[in-house]
Amino acid sequence: MEGSRLRVSGVLDGTSVTSFTEQLATGKVQKVVFEDATGGTAEAAQAYAAAIRTSGVQTEVRGQCHAACAYAFLAAKHHRFGSGGQINGLLIPVTSRPKPEELANRWRGEDAEKALAAFGPGSQASSSASADNALMPIPTVIDVSTTASSAPAAARNDWQPEHGVLFVSNPTLFGRVYNAFYCDGTQGRDFSRCERLSNADPYALGVLTR
Q: For residues 180 and 203, is the Cβ–Cβ distance under 8 A?
């Protein structure tokens, strides 16, 4: 806790949900800052998101925010990337490759909650993305492939933390540059293998607010 800002990092799992909820319930927290928070279960994402929606706090990402962190971040009415010289990345798990028309509404308001609910209650999170396992840095210039595979229908209820849509913000001399990518899960932590998405401005899609 830093003044009215609550900083959260590492893997979001069930061990800290109660403490997180209690701190928001005090009314002293105005903004939750997710800093290099990766991994976590779908159940934890739902619990963190519910606490954020109930309290009405704002959220901010500094560094990387993947899997459970991403849906917790989106639960706030106002959710932004932090300023500074760091590369910000938001990896939102999906059950299958989203169609262009789906991107427009998937993560706006209640639609983000519905997207999270698409993962069944019995979903299991991969423990491969842990706080002790550092992510490879995302390069400023990324070479992307031209094709990407979709998740099989039989696995639609599987929570795969590294399968999702990645929004990246790189600092430059002329301001920040935003890009979006589809990661099919086979890339591991090498996000240069993800497929670049066109017409996926995070502000236009509601992934970031101003």
A: no
Rounded Cα distance, 31 and 29, in Å: 6
Q: What pLDDT score does 157 carry?
A: 53
57-61, 127-131, 152-156: range with highest mean pLDDT: 57-61
Q: Is the pLDDT of residue 111 over 50?
A: yes
For the domain bounded by 5-197, which CATH number is listed?
3.90.226
Distance CA 137, CA 124 (A): 26
Residue 144 has pLDDT above 70, yes or no: no
Residue 129 has pLDDT above 90, yes or no: no
Whole-angstrom distance, CA of residue 68 vs CA of residue 119 = 12
Beta-bridge mates of residue 114: none
Q: Which residues sit opposite 90 in a β-bridge?
A: 65, 167
Instruction: Say what the pLDDT of residue 149 is.
Output: 37
Q: What is the pLDDT of residue 82?
A: 96
Tokens of 207: 């992934």
Domain map (residue ranges) of the chain: 5-197
Q: Which amino acid is at 88?
A: N
Whole-structure pTM value: 0.81
Cα–Cα distance, 111 to 162 (Å, whole number):
21
* CA-atom Rg of the chain in angstroms: 16
Structure token pair of residue 50: 């519910």
Distance CA 60, CA 42 (A): 20
Residue 31 DSSP code: E
Q: How many Å from the N-terminal Cα to the C-terminal Cα in the chain?
A: 24
For tokens 């909650």, name the residue: 113
